[in-house]
Amino acid sequence: MNKRIPSDIKKSYLLWLVAVGAGVFEMAIAVTQMLSSGSEAGMGIMIQVGIRSLIFAALIYVIVKMQRGKQWARIVLTILLGGIGTVSLLMDPIQWLMEGNSLDTALTGMTVSSTLFGISRIVHLASVIAALIFMYRPSANKYFSSFAGA
Question: How far apart are CA 102 and CA 150, in angstroms?
């Protein structure tokens, strides 16, 4: 069945890919920092990169299925990336602030890496929120419901 993909779904699809790309970029920054600090955890880093890469690949699969009208994929994205993923993106900054740190402290101690990571995290979070919104707009709901009876 060949159904026209609504603009809102196309936007959501692209925004989900941006969010995954931001996650990959953040992982690259973290790995670079660990390796440049002389960390002896080389094998542990490689295992983490491998696991995260598999997760990113699985998420891209789900994102593609969402674009193709699979309701289960929309639910998975909502729960995993929109819910659990968003909480995980916010946990570190919230915990850091709760430990008594201030935004002023963060700004004065910024490095190139921390600046890039922060910008990426903002893009990541904004992409997830926007992707969720587009994924549930009326045209998107109609698109998914058109596959329900198929």
Answer: 53
